[in-house]
Design brief:
heterodimer, A: about 110 residues, mainly beta, five-stranded antiparallel β-sheet, 11 strands, globular, B: about 110 residues, four-stranded antiparallel β-sheet
Chain lengths: ~110, ~110
């Protein structure tokens, strides 16, 4: 069974204070690792998909990296508008739908001005 | 691009009634759509996967007779919660994709059963 563990559960930063969120995963065969941002009362917003260890992707102040066991979402000089819950999900080669995503519980990021 | 809509955005119904939620891909054709449920401060739990023109595949523990899913076209899937009870109150979110590597989520539907 695929498993995704995100840490920390909650993170408070001051504006401009860089940090990283962690996503550890266990899958039989990784097809892709996804990062989403979710604002309260809304659906997740797609950020990145990573496919293989060593891959990195960037978008504005966010940078996602991937190893064989975990992924990091680095936030550089965050702003208050980056406050949200960040969700990590994996898609595996295990039986069933190849499209199925297994989500972690998320990290609630709060950036104070 | 890659916009997914849901309707309604929130609904309140009485216990015992049925509620239908629509999920539409607005600017692409979705071969597969997914329905998730999210309880407060919990992550998304996949309920079922639907492919256009075929029966939905339900996750273990999800009652297929209670949560009816119809994927009538490449742009529309519906979830009907039959004989809703207060424990069915939750945030229901659909997603759609046209490849196995991209999934885009709708804004969600807040269901409250009184």
């Amino acid at each position: 069974e695929d498993q995704v563990t995100q840490s920390p559960e909650a993170l408070r930063l001051q504006e401009g204070e860089s940090s990283s969120l962690n996503c550890s995963y266990t899958v039989s065969g990784l097809r892709g690792l996804f990062w989403y941002r979710q604002d309260p009362g809304k659906g997740p917003e797609f950020l990145f998909t990573l496919y293989s260890a060593g891959e990195e992707k960037e978008k504005e102040r966010l940078k996602a990296t991937l190893t064989k066991k975990e992924s990091f979402l680095h936030i550089t000089a965050p702003k208050p508008e980056d406050s949200a819950t960040y969700l990590c999900a994996v898609q595996s080669n295990s039986g069933g739908s190849n499209y199925k995503l297994t989500f972690g519980k998320g990290t609630l990021l709060t950036v104070n001005p | 691009g890659a916009v997914v809509s849901q309707h309604p955005s929130w609904v309140i119904c009485k216990s015992g009634t049925s509620v239908k939620i629509e999920c539409r891909s607005l600017d692409f054709q979705a071969t597969t759509m997914f329905w998730y449920r999210q309880f407060p401060k919990q992550s998304l739990m996949l309920m079922a996967t639907s492919n256009e023109g075929s029966k939905a595949t339900y996750e273990q523990g999800v009652e297929k007779d209670k949560f009816l899913i119809n994927h009538a076209s490449l742009t529309l899937s519906t979830l009907t919660v039959t004989s809703a009870h207060p424990e069915d109150s939750s945030f229901y979110i659909c997603s759609a994709g046209w490849t196995e590597y991209e999934q885009y989520f709708g804004p969600g539907t807040r269901l409250t059963v009184t």
